[in-house]
């Protein structure tokens, strides 16, 4: 097995190679003056299973194309199988046609990866897990909510309740609550398909004088979490801890979250970020061992 550190996920590739006790493949990478990517496999990959670490967090389009180059190149050089470790799988928000005429982006992206020789995608808490069934490339979707919650157990929570927004909210909050030995519930969300603005509401949850852990698979603009924090504060929550797997954090989302009253943000290293106190490397290594 050859472990290939794609430019988007070098740190994670180093951690996984350390856990597996396998050295990283020597890969030459440079960017031409006009911005195009160049790669050269220095080590031979012929007849090998090639595992490419390349998240597709921002800049998504560049990271996706780099993954395609690395995968196609490996197959062209005789790799027997390509496994793409894509801790954050981009474009999963556009998993259907919400409005007439829209492009279903995730279908296109998965089709391109298939065409580029990717035989399997290993990802973490994908935004739309229901697309696994229709994906042209087999997807293994690992769940990092447990490791995230294990870290939060150190935070000395008082009478905690775990809440998560959206339609996957109940599964996420239940998984975290099991680890934290806490109550759980959901935060109802409604997103405007034209503006993207989200409305949240707390229904049937009592947060008064309690520590609240809000978990989410991803934070992008921070809009959902900031609105949730405002509602929780108004309802009398004590401390508010925010945990997420994918901290995309566009336009200073983290600052908005902290200034709206969150006491801490804890994220994983699935996307490189400064709140990555929890690593998904162990989960990835465990899955790769089965190959
Ligand atoms: C929604 O389904 C997700 O779980 C997140 O709540 C959402 O993607 C976060 O986006 P934003 O940070 O832009 O509100």
Give structural attributes.
single chain; 291 residues; alpha/beta; Rossmann fold; 2 domains; 7-stranded mixed β-sheet; 8 helices; 30% helix; globular; binds ribose-5-phosphate
* CATH architecture term of the largest domain: 3-Layer(aba) Sandwich
* CATH topology title of the largest domain: Rossmann fold
> Sheet bearing the most strands, described?
7 strands, mixed
Ends apart, CA distance between termini: 9 Å
- Please write the CATH class name of the largest domain: Alpha Beta
Spatial order of strands in the largest sheet: 10-9-8-11-12-13-14
Multimerization state: single chain
Q: Give helix % range.
A: 25-40%
Secondary-structure element pattern, one letter each: EHEEEHEHEEHEHEEEHEHEEH
**Given the structure, what is the number of helices?**
8
How would you characterize the overall build of this protein?
The protein is an alpha/beta fold and 291 residues long. It folds into 2 domains: 2-143 and 280-289, Rossmann fold; 145-269, Rossmann fold (3-Layer(aba) Sandwich), CATH 3.40.50. The chain contains 8 helices and 14 strands. It has helices at residues 10-20, 60-76, 105-115, 145-152, 169-180, 223-234, 253-259, 281-289, and strands at 2-5, 27-31, 37-41, 49-53, 81-86, 120-124, 139-142, 161-165, 183-191, 198-202, 212-219, 240-247, 264-268, 276-278. It has a 7-stranded mixed beta sheet. The protein is globular. It starts with a strand and ends with a helix. The model has no long low-confidence stretch (mean pLDDT 96). It binds ribose-5-phosphate. The site of ribose-5-phosphate has 12 residues, from strand 11 and helix 6.
């Amino acid at each position: 097995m050859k472990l290939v550190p794609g430019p988007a996920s070098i740190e994670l590739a180093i951690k996984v190679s350390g856990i597996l006790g396998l050295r990283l493949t020597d890969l030459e990478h440079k960017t031409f003056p006009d911005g195009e990517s160049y790669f050269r496999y220095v080590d031979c990959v012929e007849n090998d299973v090639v595992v490419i670490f390349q998240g597709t967090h921002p800049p998504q389009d560049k990271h996706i194309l780099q993954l395609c180059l690395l995968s196609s190149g490996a197959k062209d050089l005789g790799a027997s199988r390509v496994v793409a470790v894509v801790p954050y799988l981009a474009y999963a928000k556009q998993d259907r046609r919400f409005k007439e005429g829209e492009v279903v982006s995730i279908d296109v992206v998965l089709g391109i990866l298939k065409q580029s020789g990717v035989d399997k995608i290993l990802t973490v808490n994908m935004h739309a897990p229901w697309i696994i069934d229709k994906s042209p490339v087999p997807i293994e979707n690992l769940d990092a909510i447990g490791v995230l919650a294990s870290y939060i157990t150190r935070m000395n929570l008082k009478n905690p309740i775990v809440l998560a927004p959206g339609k996957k909210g109940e599964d996420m909050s239940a998984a975290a609550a099991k680890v934290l030995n806490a109550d759980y519930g959901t935060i109802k969300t409604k997103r405007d398909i034209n503006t993207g603005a989200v409305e949240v509401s707390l229904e049937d949850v009592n947060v008064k004088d309690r520590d609240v852990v809000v978990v989410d698979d991803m934070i992008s603009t921070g809009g959902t979490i900031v609105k949730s924090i405002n509602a929780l504060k108004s309802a009398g929550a004590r401390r508010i801890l925010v945990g997420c797997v994918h901290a995309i954090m566009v336009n200073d989302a983290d600052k908005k979250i902290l200034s709206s009253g969150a006491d801490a943000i804890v994220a994983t290293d699935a996307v490189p970020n400064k709140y990555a106190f929890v690593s998904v490397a162990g989960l990835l290594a465990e899955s790769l061992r089965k190959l």
